[in-house]
Amino acid sequence: MNTTTSSRRPRAILRIHFHPAERTDELYGQLLAVIDGISSRVEPLPADWSAYVDLTGALTYWGRDTEGLVAVLRLRLLALHGVQCSVGAGPTRSIAAMAADATPPGAATVVRDDPYEIAVFLRTKAASALPGIGPKTAMSLARYGITSVGDIADTRLPTLQRILGATAARQAHDRARGIDERPVIPGAAPRTMSASHRFDRDELDPEQHQRAVLGLVQDLGSRLRTSGEIAQALTLTVTYADRTQTTRTRTPTEATAHSPALATTARALLTGLGLQRARVRTLTLRAERLLPAEDTVHQLTLDARDDRLRRLESALDKAMARFGPGVAGVASAFHRAGQQATGVHPSGSGGRTAA
Fold it and tell me: pLDDT (tens digit, 9 = 90+) per residue, 213-267?
């Protein structure tokens, strides 16, 4: 008997974005646990509160199609944690990401693993919607009349290579035709540590914003040094009076737990947000992609102020370990020891200064 059935299973990959009222590391972990109850193939992306999920095997296990399993997942997240999400589903990572970007909170967009449906979804999208095509690349393509994903798919590869280079052209050409073999790589979310400050009233004063952020830096820096970890990035989330949020991430010049270095990065984040007229309810600072402190590579300098600050920091950590938080006016001490080196302003704290 002659059979010609295909052994290939339809692929179903999700890109899911969470939209909670307030963000905490604990909540993110709980949301990932809900997803893990549906499929164990979860790739966390904590920087933007999202994740990739491979549902290919789960569809058979649960006996549902992609739309049905996505509906179950969204319902569980809402029922257990009150969190809305937006979901994009498709046969590849790039299609799932594009579908998610086009989906509002509380909704889902599903592109089935079907050549016709894939082409219908992709071809009319702007070239800049394709993952890997940034604004500058899209402008370069537009100069040659290539403005849509369909145009990229129809352009001969050698022509694209002359415009974009060999690697970028091959990647764009494949993704424009729905080809993307990148797998979902399961793993635990990279360790993070966060601190939040909620104002007693919606705060308009930029000075109070700066003082609050500096207090968060002091808290995070002390906890990082106590746990023997260093941060590779800082993320500042601002929650406004209307509960909307803005999040920005910046990478320090080197992974660190040194409070003045963290403060420099945090103040740059705050300044970049331009909150002069914003009514701020909560500020959250998160240290991300933590590493063991022994992995640090500190660039040696001839700056005596930096050495004094590090010795002072060590002394203050010991004082707080002995007498508890709040024993030292950390910000004021850093200000006196090295204001010119770090740009750190005093917090106005009334705490005692350790000798």
Answer: 999 998 999 899 888 888 988 999 999 988 888 888 898 888 888 888 899 999 9
13-176 adopts what CATH topology? Alpha-Beta Plaits (3.30.70)
Q: CA–CA separation, 297 vs 238, rounded Å?
A: 31
Q: What is the pTM of this model?
A: 0.60
Could you say which DSSP state residue 183 is in?
P
Which tokens in the block code for residue 278? 């914003």
Using CA atoms, how far apart are residues 228 and 171, in angstroms rounded to an integer? 40
Compute the C-alpha angle 162/166/172, nearest 5°: 95
Q: Would you call 260 helix, strand, or coil by DSSP?
A: helix
User: Mind giving me the DSSP string for 189-219?
Assistant: PPP-EEEEEEEEEEE--HHHHHHHHHHHHHH
Q: Where in the chain is the domain with CATH 3.30.1490.100?
A: 193-342
Residue 126: DSSP 8-state? B
- List the structure tokens of 43: 């790739």
Let me know: does 52 contact 130? Beta carbons within 8 Å: no
CATH of domain 193-342: 3.30.1490.100
Cβ proximity of 238 and 206 under 8 Å: no
* Average pLDDT score over residue span 3-32: 81
pLDDT at 340 over 80: no
CATH 3.30.70.270 residue spans of the chain: 13-176
What is the rounded distance in angstroms from the CA atom of residue 9 to the CA atom of residue 130?
A: 25
Comparison of pLDDT for 338 and 126, the residue scoring more: 126
